Amino acid sequence: MTKSDDKMPSIVPAPGDIHPLRRFTDARVALGRAGTSLPTRAHLDFLHDHARARDAVWAAPDLEGLRRRLEAVGMPVVRLRSAAPDRATYLRRPDLGRRLDNKDAARLRRLVVPDSVDRERPRVGIVVADGLSAMAIDVNAAPVVIGLEQALRDQRLELAPVALVEQGRVAVGDAVGEALGLALVIVLIGERPGLSAADSLGCYVTWAPRPGTPDSARSCISNIRLGGLVPEQAVACIADLARDIWRTRVSGIALAAAIGQRLE
Q1: Hey, what's the signal peptide range on this chain (predicted)?
Q2: Whole-number pLDDT of residue 218
Q3: Domain assignments of the chain as residue spans, ordered by start
Q4: Burial 187-205 (b: 16+ CB within 10 A, else e)
Q5: Residue in 13, 33, 14 with CA at minimum distance from that of residue 22
Q6: Element (H, E) at 209
Q7: Which of 91, 236, 257, 261 has the fewest CB atoms within 10 Å, measured from its CB?
Q8: Res 3: pLDDT
Q9: Helix/strand/coil for 71
Q10: How far apart are CA 31 and CA 22, in angstroms?
Q11: Which residues of the chain have a pLDDT value below 50?
Q12: Annotation-wise, does 191 bind a ligand?
């Protein structure tokens, strides 16, 4: 073998036996190599996706447009803010995003109506919070909320007005649940964007939501988006989860234990 034959090629394509599998995932696998770096196309794709992720975190979702869309199909909606006064503070102070603004919390308590005559119909609340991806809310929230509203009514569950919370974290659903006296709260929130998905919506379902509820008491369904769990399938999964939680009166790891015991 000559010295020239021993040189590595400057451009190394993706391995042939792995390349066909890339159509099944958005993950960065089998990208190939150009010298000591990525091929130009892979590098530009990385920069593009990184910019989309940053935009998803800093952008504001169109909550007013979401409100109009939900009200157009007959769903009552209430707009709220967390205790975080702006986006920069929200990103630095996660604790403020877990609490409602004091004025909004008081306004929400005034919406409480007398208990239903039918004690077997618990009050359930749907909360939409921007979280860390405005894109996830703008793309996925409306079809999930509209489909979920019908699925929950099919279970004869009494629904509170949909709460749209600006600058909200997952635990802001606990504050909403306490103010409205909810038995169950379903929080739909923009998930932290990655470099392969900036529009992923997460769902957290909590039984007996109250401030201070640990994350271990929440049941989660994630990656709700067209490239993951599509909204129609997500609605069915969330509705089934809500049914199990209502039957067992627990959520999170306690729900997993209760279902496990039932299957034994």
Answers
A1: none
A2: 97
A3: 61-263
A4: bbbbbbbeeebbbbbbbbb
A5: 14
A6: none
A7: 261
A8: 53
A9: helix
A10: 9
A11: 1, 116-121
A12: yes
